[in-house]
Amino acid sequence: MRLPRGIDVGRGFAAAEAVIQSHRCGPTIWRGVLVAAQAATILLTWKVWQVRELPPLVPLAAVWQIDMALPLIASLAVVLVRPPVGLALHTSLLGWAIIADQCRMQPQVISLACLLWGTCGLPGGLVVARSSLTATWLYAGLHKLTSPIYFDRVGPWMLDAVWPGAAPGLALPLALMVAGTEVALGIGTLVPACRRAVAIGAVTLHASVLAVLVWRLDWNREVWPWNVALACAGPLVVAPWQGPGLGVAWAMAARMARGLATVVLLMPIGYWLGLVDASLAHSVYAENTPRAHICSPFARQNLRDRCYRQGVVVPPAQRIFIAVFRGMGRPGEWLEIEDPRLVARLRGTAFRTVRWTEIEAAGKAGPGP
Question: Where do the structural domains in the chain lie, given as residue ranges?
Fold first, then answer.
């Protein structure tokens, strides 16, 4: 491609890549895959996006409450015909929905929205999408590798799902292989020589996850479309990725976009510091997140399991657990919270007992002077 006179080589290659990425068939197909995956995810998690009584809404701020599923799906239709306008609309609606209810911080929905920005034809959108893809794989693996519970519980569970009756000693190698593959995919996206292998590995990994979830377990349906999209990301995003790091598009991206891409790459570190929720840190199937049980003198029930049976996946965060319990609990019940992170032990919040009567009384009393 001939470059305009007066433009430096770095910016010229970045401009060339932006043009190619915005006009070739790959991004168009990729946009369709992501729109379909996001729409399917919203349909599979329909109750999360509706105004509901149980599990209760957990707003970040007092905003107007409306059902958000149909507006979000309608904005995806706009994405197909006017990508920049549709993406701005979809992102705004998603942000409003999360402010209205923190239970809508669903990692797969946020991930798909970030990836969609890579199809808008702008260099800034491309680097944000790439940083999100890199962070998804990298931190998903790191969370597993740093979680003892992952090796104790998830490893044997995966082995039983993949190979029933296999020798228990194979659980550790399988767990290491899965986590190590995710880390390798994340790092490999930033290294040009590794991207062909990453593209193949992404298809293999997520096709395997789908095979286990769909055909073997028929479980966790709300993440099926996300895994389809991540499998397609290999040939449609990683394979055509040019240049080291986030690509030569980085040079043409606006400063704000580069800053946002950097935040996306580094923000998950805040989870181990107690600053970022697991839903924003790519902690999936690592079992290193807080857990809560609703207890009474006669029973002990996992709060997230109880909400899941009612159609809502509650993000694993202590403040959200307490807010949900306030709307679901009854006199005589209490909430037991366990947080496996080191930062929780240092703060003295690794093990907490919260009685419903206490938080109900605190809520009625209102804020102090």
Answer: 9-45+106-280, 291-365
